[in-house]
Amino acid sequence: MSLFQAILIGLVSCTAASTIACLGTTVGNYTLNRPLVASMIVGIILGDVSGCIMIGIPMQVMWIALVTPGGTVASDLRAVSYIGIPLAYVGVKAAGIDPASDEAFQLASSISAMTGTIGITLFYGTAMMNLIWQHIGWAKLDKGDFEIVGKVDALMPLISHFCLSFLPVTLLCYFGSGAVEEVFKTLDVSVWYVKALLCVGSVLPAVGIAILLKSVVNKTSDLVFFLLGFVLAAAMGLTLLAATVVGGVFALINYQMTMIKIEANKGGGAAVVVEEEEDI
């Protein structure tokens, strides 16, 4: 990986940060920060979009249910997406592993778990610096200095964010890619500790699915709808987009039936229910 490529990845990571998302939280943290989206951007920078997306898929599955309720951050996806994906891609290529193979998926999952802990440090380091700037701002305001408001609200946080986001990501991608490449050139997947690493990596995406299930499944019958997508893909060979359309149809039907029940309860008459059912 060249220094220019590492700098570009570092700049993109600044816009995707969850503490100061330059394009807003929706576009930054919840879009650019997601591994599947980041893998496309990293692929454009590294010149292999399909290869990087294949690396980003297991990472996306692993962190699919990650949210930040109440400011609690289990892992900052900035490091997973913009440190984990480039390093995993470089390592897989150096080892001569096909990015679409199971070994690549397992290695990518393991690397994303390790880089996720780096993201926590970056997140809370930026948050800590923001608190320091705010403390300085309040002290200046008590002395009647109102010009400090713009500085502590925008300028100083951007400077600390640059130091704690752009620099670590750029340096880790540039120097880390060389180290990873050297290690993975001599990687022997038949060694027991490498097999152990691959086994752990193969389990990690299931953790993401389990967390997602815990978030969206309220009762046992909800599992039927959740499994429907897998059945459509495995038994009918539908693509993800086609399965999404089928799911959207079921969601629309469920919505219409729910609205019928609400209208029926408001009207209080059985005739209304029969009439609406005939419309369907």
Descriptive notes:
This protein is mainly alpha-helical and 280 residues long. It is flat and about 65 Å long. The protein contains eleven helices and no strands.
Break the fold down into its secondary structure elements and pairings.
Layout lengths: L2 H13 L12 H5 L2 H12 L2 H14 L14 H19 L6 H41 L5 H38 L6 H25 L5 H14 L4 H28 L2 H10 L1
Helix pairs in contact: 1-3, 1-5, 1-7, 3-4, 3-5, 4-5, 4-6, 4-8, 5-6, 5-7, 6-7, 6-8, 10-11
Q: Tally the beta strands.
A: 0
Radius of gyration: 24 Å
| Shape label | flat
Into which percentage range does the β-strand content fall? Answer: under 5%
Give the % helix: over 70%
Task: Tell me the number of helical segments per DSSP (H or I, 4 or more residues long).
Answer: 11
Q: Mean of the pLDDT scores?
A: 75
Give unreliable regions as ranges.
270-280
The SSE order reads: HHHHHHHHHHH
Largest sheet: none
Strand-pairing-aware structural class:
mainly alpha
What is the subunit arrangement here?
A: single chain
